[in-house]
Amino acid sequence: MQKTLQFLFAAGLLTSAAANAAEVDVPGSTGGADVTVYNSDLALVREHRSFHLPAASAQLAFTGVSGQMQPETALLDVIKGDPIKITEQNFKFNVINQQALLERAVGKEVLVILPNAVGVGSPIKARVLSADGPVFEIDGKIHTGLAGRIIFDGLPEGMRTTPTLVLNVTGAAGKDSEAEFSYLTSGLTWHADYVVNYDSDAARMDLTGWATIVNTTGTDFKDAKLKLVAGDISRVYAPRPMAKEMRAMNMAASAAPMADGVSEGELEGSHIYNIAHQVTLSDKESKQLSLLTGQAVPVTRELIFRNGQPYIYSNLLRGPQQDGKATIELAFRNDAKSKLNVALPAGTFRIYGMDDKGAPQFIGESNIGHKAAGSDVRLSLGQDFDVTSSREQLTFVRASDTITVSAWRITVKNAKARPIKVRLIEPMPASWEITKESLAHKETTASSTEWVLEVPAKGQTVLEYNVKSTF
User: Fold this and answer.
1) Phi, psi (5° rounding) for residue 427?
2) Cα–Cα distance between 132 and 256 in angstroms, integer?
3) β-strands 442-445, 22-26 pairing
4) Percent of residues in the chain assigned helix, strand, coil, to nearest 5
5) How confident is the model at residue 168 (pLDDT cuts 50, 70, 90)?
6) Any long-range contacts for 333-339 (C-beta under 8 Å, 24+ apart)?
7) Mean pLDDT of 145-160
8) Distance between CA 406 and CA 391 in Å, rounded?
9) Distance of CA 145 to the CA centre of its chain
10) Quick check: 89 and 71 in contact, CB under 8 A?
11) Is 438 left (phi over 0), alpha (psi -120 to 50) or beta?
12) Does the predicted model carry a pTM greater than 0.70?
């Protein structure tokens, strides 16, 4: 019992010491933070901060942090000075604003100054009944919709003018320390935007890639040293290994297509882009930085039908079926021959071309996922309403519970004044065999096959084939 009382007494002293510890405002980094932004609403912020411990116990108040920081990921690494021990941390994100002040004043009296016929009236005592509205009690009566000023006695305890992380620490009294302070935060993300100038006559395109960074953290990051990570990372990384990993990463030399001042490297299956110049990321701002360029990239324009689903081979269909319009796609190879051969982060391509009068026009946009160097890239521009197709099931025989034999006719029509070439990609079931066809097919995958049809101007081309299907 005596030991228990001694323990409770000691714990009470520690709690009292923490509560009465001096609060030390830790100034922000003078050289700008190191900010690594991922394209999954996540960022790693690293800052160099200096502080002085006036006593063995103190509260370090880190202001200027993100309003969406994840406090459980905060890491304070003392790099100069005596070590300190963190006993508790509190994230003060209830930042001052009128609504927050009213919510803390519910049940209390404030002063309300209402306008009158000659100007501003005298202060009136009012009790706040609800912050929603708000609702006041004045002289025993309930008032809503008051148009006037509200005067509060002072700032409520615990409310801050900016988001603040407060650390209760112990260490050597009277000592100066320098530390690296890092944390993860939401509210910072980025994606790639690509602008394409497509020359259909030359079958070439000029490409400009932009990094679009969006900051909604509630905090400005002035003169930040910026890195951008493109990839699909796990969200269960521990903060300490991540910080060490970022310090040890290997940056590669810039590839030729990268914009000036941008270098690319690898980071555990992702790609990281280092921005050489300092960047200010202001709150509620979208910023674009030049990321990469490509000139005279060879590109192929294709008209493609991707028709139906494999289940069509297992059912009897009556009458012609309209498959719709051809999809217009641009395809290019992201390799050295095309003067690219760089990782393309996920983003949106916006394509511009020339009309028949030579004026530039927007012709479509298409999203891509992350594309590695050496990969093929396809951009969909929409549909061509001059090129349509229809299908008709000519015969259908169910040979057994799992085998069917069917015959098909597909008609592709071209309303243009010039001949075209169309790729017709047909889905196939688990096991299939083309037993007869009017044009030779090109087997592409186990689940699809393809025909290339030449369609005359103002004309049509008909494909007929028989298929044995096993389900």
Assistant:
1) -70, 150
2) 58
3) unpaired
4) 10, 60, 30
5) very high
6) 333/298, 333/374, 333/375, 333/376, 333/377, 334/371, 334/372, 334/373, 334/374, 334/375, 334/376, 334/377, 335/373, 335/374, 337/298, 338/294, 338/297, 338/298, 339/256, 339/257, 339/294, 339/295, 339/296, 339/297
7) 82
8) 13
9) 40
10) yes
11) alpha
12) yes
Looking at domain 300-334+382-470, its CATH architecture is Sandwich (2.60)
Classify the C-alpha dihedral 154-159-160-165 as positive or negative.
positive
* Residue 432 β-bridge partners: 469
Least confident of 45-54, 94-103, 225-234: 94-103
CA distance 24 to 55: 10
Of residues 458, 457, 426, 430, the one with CA closest to residue 439: 426
d(CA 64, CA 91): 12
Return the domain boundaries, the chain: 108-151, 300-334+382-470
Task: Give the pairing type, strands 149-151 and 109-116.
Answer: antiparallel
Cα 188 versus chain centre, distance? 8
Question: In the block, which residue shows the tokens 């969406």?
Answer: 68
What does the angle CA 39 – CA 44 – CA 45 come to, to the nearest 5 degrees? 135
| Cα gap 307→411, rounded to integer Å | 12
Tokens 């299908």 correspond to 391
Output the pLDDT for position 11: 37
Tell me the pLDDT tens digit for each residue of 450-466: 999 999 999 999 999 99
- The DSSP output letter for 30 is T
**Element holding 35 (H helix, E strand):** strand 34-38
Structure tokens at 190: 């980025």
* Chain CA centroid to CA 131, Å: 35
Question: d(Cα 46, Cα 243) in Å, to the nearest integer?
Answer: 8
Pairing mode, strands 22-26 and 57-63? parallel
The stretch 435-444 carries a mean pLDDT of 91
Q: Report residue 309: phi and psi, to 5°.
A: -135, 160
Residues 233-265: b if buried by 16+ CB within 10 A, e if exposed: beeebebeebbeebeebeeeebbebbbeebbbb
What would the pLDDT profile of 329-378 be if each residue is shown by its tens digit?
999 999 999 889 999 999 999 999 999 888 999 999 999 999 999 999 99
In terms of Cβ atoms closer than 10 Å to its own Cβ (0-12, 13-18, 19+), residue 227 is buried
CB 150 within 8 A of CB 97: no
Neighbours of 467 (CB within 10 A): 21
